[in-house]
């Protein structure tokens, strides 16, 4: 049973953003402070990565744990209401992530995915991995 009114639920769902999320902004600020320039949400790149380095073909995704199914085998049991909607939706998101990774890698892209909690806990380590991937592409 939903504890929110229809109006409250609508407002909550409307507030969910697909770009410029807190985790994306946190990682982008770290990269920017290091002098690393990027494109964000490039529509011309399959899957619209959150951070894109087109010249080096590096795509970065910042995935939130709920929407992208972190530890899904265990976490799906935490969903108590509207399971018939949420479980297939999140499982489709997981499949889409795999499809995007495969398509980009087949086209020569390096794909990096970071969980939101990893970015929040250690943004510098995440940025270091991106820097390493960019350096690797210089070779």
The CA-CA distance between the termini, in Å, is 56 Å
Shape: globular
- Second-tier CATH architecture: 3-Layer(aba) Sandwich
Mean pLDDT: 91
Which fold name is given in CATH as the topology? Endonuclease, Chain A
What is Rg? Answer: 17 Å
The profile of the biggest β sheet is: 4 strands, mixed
Number of strands: 4
The CATH homologous superfamily is named VSR Endonuclease
Q: Spans of 5+ residues with little confidence (pLDDT < 50)?
A: none
Share in helix: 40-55%
| CATH class group | Alpha Beta
Beta content: 5-15%
The domain tally reads: 1
The helix count comes to: 7
In which order are the strands of the major sheet placed? 1-2-3-4
Q: How would you describe this protein?
A:
Helices cover 54% and strands 12% of the residues. By secondary structure, the chain is of the alpha+beta class. The radius of gyration is 17 Å and the shape is globular. The model has no long low-confidence stretch (mean pLDDT 91).
